[in-house]
């Protein structure tokens, strides 16, 4: 996992930022939920929520579900993109190895050509 983060730092940074936002959002929703349930007085005494508070809580819970669903979709898309990027990275690494191999062969050919020219000069 750490190797992937080193190779794809922008993806890891984006995922880390997304996780941070999700956690902050969840904490905010919990604070709002507790505030609505205890009547907003801050005294810690739990009271029965009024009809308006119940409707607000229901809307908040519905929005929470929508946000979680959206975040799951975004995370799924990011995972797909990451898989695509990993596949492209592996292909690029393969191509890099091929290029390095061809460069080594070219160097070997050049050194043999120079040696052959030297042998021809020495022979003449």
From TrEMBL:
Keywords of the record: Coiled coil, Signal
Coiled-coil blocks: 75-112
Protein name: Uncharacterized protein
Signal sequence interval, chain numbering: 1-39
């Amino acid at each position: 996992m750490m190797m992937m983060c080193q190779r794809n730092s922008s993806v890891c940074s984006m995922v880390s930022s997304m996780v941070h936002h999700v956690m902050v959002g969840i904490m905010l929703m919990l604070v709002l939920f507790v505030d609505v349930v205890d009547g907003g007085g801050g005294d810690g005494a739990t009271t029965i929520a009024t009809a308006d508070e119940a409707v607000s809580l229901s809307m908040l819970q519905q929005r929470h579900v929508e946000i979680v669903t959206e975040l799951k979709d975004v995370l799924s898309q990011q995972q797909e993109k990451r898989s695509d990027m990993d596949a492209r990275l592996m292909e690029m690494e393969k191509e890099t190895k091929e290029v390095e191999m061809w460069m080594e062969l070219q160097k070997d050919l050049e050194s043999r050509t120079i040696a052959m020219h030297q042998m021809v000069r020495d022979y003449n």
